[in-house]
Amino acid sequence: MASAGDIPTQEALAATAMLRTEFPDLKIRFINVVDLFKLQPNAEHPHGLLDRDFDSLFTVDKPVIVNFHGYPQLIHRMAYRRRNHENIHVRGYKEKGSINTPLELAIDNNIDRFSLAMDVVDRVPRLQKLGGHAKERFLNQQIECRDYAHQFGIDKPDVADWTWPY
Fold first, then answer.
1. List of residues 6+ apart from 106 with CB closer than 8 A
2. Dihedral pair phi/psi, residue 3, rounded to 5°
3. Least packed by Cβ within 10 Å: which of 4, 8, 55, 134?
Protein backbone atom coordinates (compact mmCIF):
# COMPACT_ATOMS: atom_id res chain seq x y z
CA MET A 1 0.00 0.00 0.00
CA ALA A 2 1.42 3.35 -0.98
CA SER A 3 0.08 6.88 -0.76
CA ALA A 4 0.76 10.47 -1.68
CA GLY A 5 -1.20 13.37 -0.21
CA ASP A 6 -2.69 13.95 3.23
CA ILE A 7 -6.24 12.57 2.82
CA PRO A 8 -5.14 9.65 0.61
CA THR A 9 -2.47 8.77 3.19
CA GLN A 10 -4.95 8.84 6.06
CA GLU A 11 -7.42 6.70 4.10
CA ALA A 12 -4.70 4.23 3.05
CA LEU A 13 -3.50 3.96 6.66
CA ALA A 14 -7.08 3.38 7.82
CA ALA A 15 -7.48 0.65 5.17
CA THR A 16 -4.23 -0.93 6.35
CA ALA A 17 -5.47 -0.93 9.95
CA MET A 18 -8.78 -2.50 8.88
CA LEU A 19 -6.94 -5.22 6.95
CA ARG A 20 -4.62 -5.92 9.89
CA THR A 21 -7.67 -6.40 12.10
CA GLU A 22 -9.42 -8.72 9.62
CA PHE A 23 -6.32 -10.64 8.52
CA PRO A 24 -3.68 -10.48 11.30
CA ASP A 25 -1.25 -12.71 9.39
CA LEU A 26 -1.36 -10.56 6.23
CA LYS A 27 1.91 -8.75 5.59
CA ILE A 28 1.37 -5.20 4.34
CA ARG A 29 4.14 -2.78 3.51
CA PHE A 30 3.11 0.87 3.67
CA ILE A 31 5.03 3.50 1.72
CA ASN A 32 4.25 7.21 1.96
CA VAL A 33 5.58 8.86 -1.19
CA VAL A 34 6.57 12.41 -0.32
CA ASP A 35 8.66 13.11 -3.43
CA LEU A 36 6.82 11.86 -6.52
CA PHE A 37 9.99 12.12 -8.61
CA LYS A 38 11.37 9.15 -6.63
CA LEU A 39 9.00 6.99 -8.71
CA GLN A 40 10.92 7.79 -11.89
CA PRO A 41 14.16 6.02 -12.78
CA ASN A 42 17.26 7.93 -11.72
CA ALA A 43 18.21 8.33 -15.41
CA GLU A 44 14.98 10.33 -15.92
CA HIS A 45 15.18 12.62 -12.88
CA PRO A 46 17.89 13.39 -10.31
CA HIS A 47 15.53 12.43 -7.45
CA GLY A 48 14.64 9.12 -9.13
CA LEU A 49 15.42 5.83 -7.44
CA LEU A 50 17.74 3.23 -8.87
CA ASP A 51 15.79 0.23 -10.15
CA ARG A 52 17.10 -2.03 -7.38
CA ASP A 53 16.01 0.49 -4.72
CA PHE A 54 12.57 0.89 -6.28
CA ASP A 55 12.20 -2.90 -6.50
CA SER A 56 13.24 -3.34 -2.87
CA LEU A 57 10.52 -0.93 -1.77
CA PHE A 58 7.68 -1.76 -4.17
CA THR A 59 8.60 -5.42 -4.88
CA VAL A 60 8.87 -7.04 -8.30
CA ASP A 61 5.88 -9.38 -8.08
CA LYS A 62 3.30 -8.21 -5.52
CA PRO A 63 0.22 -6.04 -6.05
CA VAL A 64 0.77 -2.41 -5.12
CA ILE A 65 -2.15 -0.06 -4.53
CA VAL A 66 -1.24 3.61 -4.66
CA ASN A 67 -3.71 6.10 -3.17
CA PHE A 68 -2.99 9.46 -4.75
CA HIS A 69 -4.36 12.99 -4.36
CA GLY A 70 -4.16 13.71 -8.09
CA TYR A 71 -4.87 12.08 -11.42
CA PRO A 72 -3.84 8.39 -11.47
CA GLN A 73 -2.27 8.74 -14.92
CA LEU A 74 0.55 10.82 -13.44
CA ILE A 75 1.75 7.97 -11.22
CA HIS A 76 1.48 5.51 -14.11
CA ARG A 77 3.55 7.82 -16.34
CA MET A 78 6.23 8.19 -13.69
CA ALA A 79 6.52 4.46 -12.94
CA TYR A 80 5.79 2.89 -16.34
CA ARG A 81 9.39 1.74 -16.84
CA ARG A 82 9.51 -0.09 -13.52
CA ARG A 83 9.62 -3.89 -13.49
CA ASN A 84 6.40 -4.37 -11.47
CA HIS A 85 4.44 -1.70 -13.33
CA GLU A 86 1.66 -4.12 -14.34
CA ASN A 87 0.95 -4.76 -10.64
CA ILE A 88 0.77 -1.07 -9.69
CA HIS A 89 -2.86 0.00 -9.31
CA VAL A 90 -3.41 3.70 -8.74
CA ARG A 91 -6.51 5.18 -7.13
CA GLY A 92 -6.93 8.92 -7.47
CA TYR A 93 -9.00 11.86 -8.55
CA LYS A 94 -11.73 11.01 -11.08
CA GLU A 95 -13.56 14.36 -11.07
CA LYS A 96 -16.45 12.78 -9.18
CA GLY A 97 -18.29 14.47 -6.37
CA SER A 98 -19.74 17.84 -5.63
CA ILE A 99 -20.77 19.35 -2.32
CA ASN A 100 -19.86 16.34 -0.23
CA THR A 101 -18.27 15.51 3.06
CA PRO A 102 -14.57 14.61 2.79
CA LEU A 103 -15.33 10.89 3.13
CA GLU A 104 -18.15 11.02 0.55
CA LEU A 105 -15.76 12.67 -1.91
CA ALA A 106 -13.19 9.95 -1.18
CA ILE A 107 -15.84 7.25 -1.70
CA ASP A 108 -16.93 8.81 -5.01
CA ASN A 109 -13.32 8.67 -6.22
CA ASN A 110 -12.59 5.19 -4.74
CA ILE A 111 -9.80 6.51 -2.53
CA ASP A 112 -11.61 5.79 0.76
CA ARG A 113 -10.49 3.18 3.29
CA PHE A 114 -13.32 0.80 2.45
CA SER A 115 -12.72 0.77 -1.32
CA LEU A 116 -8.98 0.31 -0.75
CA ALA A 117 -9.49 -2.58 1.69
CA MET A 118 -11.89 -4.28 -0.74
CA ASP A 119 -9.38 -3.74 -3.54
CA VAL A 120 -6.67 -5.49 -1.51
CA VAL A 121 -8.98 -8.47 -0.92
CA ASP A 122 -9.58 -8.66 -4.68
CA ARG A 123 -5.87 -8.45 -5.57
CA VAL A 124 -4.21 -10.73 -3.01
CA PRO A 125 -4.74 -14.31 -4.24
CA ARG A 126 -4.98 -15.83 -0.76
CA LEU A 127 -7.64 -13.31 0.29
CA GLN A 128 -9.73 -13.88 -2.83
CA LYS A 129 -10.62 -17.30 -1.41
CA LEU A 130 -11.38 -16.31 2.17
CA GLY A 131 -12.05 -12.57 2.16
CA GLY A 132 -15.68 -12.43 1.04
CA HIS A 133 -16.96 -11.84 4.58
CA ALA A 134 -14.52 -8.98 5.07
CA LYS A 135 -15.45 -7.35 1.74
CA GLU A 136 -19.13 -7.50 2.73
CA ARG A 137 -18.31 -5.89 6.10
CA PHE A 138 -16.24 -3.14 4.43
CA LEU A 139 -19.04 -2.44 1.94
CA ASN A 140 -21.63 -2.24 4.73
CA GLN A 141 -19.41 0.17 6.68
CA GLN A 142 -19.02 2.31 3.56
CA ILE A 143 -22.80 2.41 3.04
CA GLU A 144 -23.33 3.25 6.71
CA CYS A 145 -20.87 6.15 6.45
CA ARG A 146 -22.52 7.52 3.32
CA ASP A 147 -25.99 7.23 4.90
CA TYR A 148 -24.75 9.07 8.00
CA ALA A 149 -23.30 11.87 5.86
CA HIS A 150 -26.57 12.21 3.95
CA GLN A 151 -28.57 12.33 7.17
CA PHE A 152 -26.36 14.67 9.22
CA GLY A 153 -24.27 16.53 6.63
CA ILE A 154 -20.97 15.51 8.26
CA ASP A 155 -18.82 12.41 8.37
CA LYS A 156 -19.24 9.96 11.24
CA PRO A 157 -17.09 11.14 14.17
CA ASP A 158 -15.21 7.83 14.41
CA VAL A 159 -14.19 8.25 10.73
CA ALA A 160 -13.48 11.98 10.83
CA ASP A 161 -11.42 11.68 14.03
CA TRP A 162 -9.67 8.40 13.12
CA THR A 163 -6.10 7.92 14.33
CA TRP A 164 -3.58 5.15 13.74
CA PRO A 165 -4.30 2.47 16.36
CA TYR A 166 -0.88 0.76 16.43
1. 7, 11, 112
2. -150, 160
3. 55
CATH code at position 136: 3.40.50.920
Note the pLDDT tens digit of each residue in 127-141. Answer: 998 999 999 999 999
Query: Is 166 part of a structural domain of the chain?
Result: no
Is the pTM higher than 0.90? The answer reads yes
Residue 65 and residue 166: Cα distance in Å, rounded?
21
Can you list the residues of the chain whose pLDDT is less than 50? Answer: none
Indicate the number of domains in the chain: 1
- Domain contains 52: yes
- Residue 120: the pLDDT is 98
- Residue 112's nearest CA partner among 8, 1, 6, 3 is 8
Residue 57: per-residue pLDDT: 96
